[in-house]
Amino acid sequence: MILDTLDPIDLVELTERASLQTRMDRKYVVPADAVPVLLRGIEPGARILQIGDERDFAYESVYFDTPDLTSYLGAAHRRRRRFKIRTRTYVDSELCWVEVKTRGPRGSTVKTRLPYDPDDRDTLTDEGRRFADDVLDSDAAFQKTLVSTYRRTTLYLPRTDSRTTIDTGLVWTSALTGASRRLDDRVVIETKTGSTPSSTDRLLWRHGHRPVRISKYGTGMAALHTDLPHHPWRRVLDRHVTR
C-alpha cells in the first residue's frame, strides 16, 4: 500500500508543525475497498506518523456526560454552546489525556486537554472534574456513557501544515447498557485543518465523497440508544451504520 512508501514524521515534529488544537474538522465515511485508490492521489510530500516501527495505532476514547445527557443532546439539537468530555488513550504508548472539546468561532473545534493516568481513563477523578469544570465554567456531575475503540493512521500534509487521519475497525460500546456495534467495511477519514480545505478534502471531493455529520460520540450513542433524538446523524446511520 502507498502508506508503506511515505516518509515518516515523529510525534514531536508533528505536534510542532500541526498541533491544531483549534481547527476545522471535516469527516468522511468511505467504503474500505475505496481507500487504496484514494491514497494513490495523496499530496506529494505527505508523511506518516511513525513511533518506533509502528505506523498504525490503537486508540480508546471514554466519553462522559451528565445524567440527563446534556453533551449528547447539545449535539443532537445543534446547540451553539455544546461540548464533549472524554479520556483519550493511546494504547500502544500508554499515554492518556482528559480532553474537553468546545465550539469556537465559525464552527471551529477547540480542544483543551490535560495529561491523565491511563489507569483512571474509565473515570473522572477529582482532578479531571476540576479540569472539566474550569473549561466549561460549570459544576455539573458526569458519568461514563460510551467507549469507542479503533485503529488510526495519521498523515501530515506539508502544504497546509494539516493532518489527515484514517480510522479503521471502529467499535462503539455503551457504558449504560453494555451493547456494542461495529462499523463494518467502512473507514472514517478526518481532515484537520485551519480555515483552508486540505488537499485530502479536494481529493475526496474529486472521487465523489462529501463531508458527513459523524461524531464518534453522537453517532455511537444514537446507534446504541435508538430512543434518543438523532437527526444530525440520520443519514450516516441509515447509509453506513444500521444498513
From TrEMBL:
Question: Which domain of life does the protein's organism represent?
Answer: Bacteria
InterPro entries, per the entry: VTC_domain, VTC_sf
Listed under GO biological process in this entry are: polyphosphate biosynthetic process
Describe the location of the VTC domain by residue ranges: 23-225
Q: Which residues form the signal peptide?
A: none
Question: What Pfam families would the database entry show?
Answer: VTC
Q: What is this protein called?
A: Polyphosphate polymerase domain-containing protein
Record the organism. Answer: Cellulomonas humilata
